[in-house]
Design goal:
Length: 124
């Protein structure tokens, strides 16, 4: 379930159709690395670190799911609803100083614009 979410986020940010509107983002690598002093990518990168997973109790379903097939009832627990929080960071290659900061801010802005297009994650 969580791997599927990360793969979906990667697919959204890796979409070739982004090239025209978001060229910097389209050229960036997408990573899911744990932040550390050693993480310093050599290529322009958007990193998504999953730092928090919590059950969404407001969306918790209390009633079991009943499926009827061929005169039989299959009863199962409803799926758990969770909120996943990612820390999104940008790493721009080939820039220094103020230009580095601005390039990373541009990447973050582009990533947020693309992700904001999906208030819900599309089904595969």
């Amino acid at each position: 379930m969580i791997r599927d979410l990360s793969e979906t986020l990667q697919a959204i940010l890796d979409d070739a159709a982004l090239e025209k509107s978001f060229p910097e983002l389209a050229a960036a690598q997408i990573a899911f690395e744990r932040p550390s002093d050693q993480f310093s990518p050599s290529q322009t990168t958007i990193n998504l670190f999953l730092f928090d997973i919590r059950e969404n109790t407001e969306l918790r379903a209390k009633e079991p799911i009943v499926e009827r097939r061929n005169g039989e009832a299959l009863i199962r627990r409803p799926p758990m609803r969770v909120d996943c929080s990612y820390l999104v960071t940008a790493w721009a290659a080939g820039s220094t100083g103020q230009e580095l900061v601005l390039a990373e801010h541009e990447l973050l802005g582009q990533a947020m614009q693309v992700l904001a297009r999906y208030p819900t994650i599309p089904e595969k």
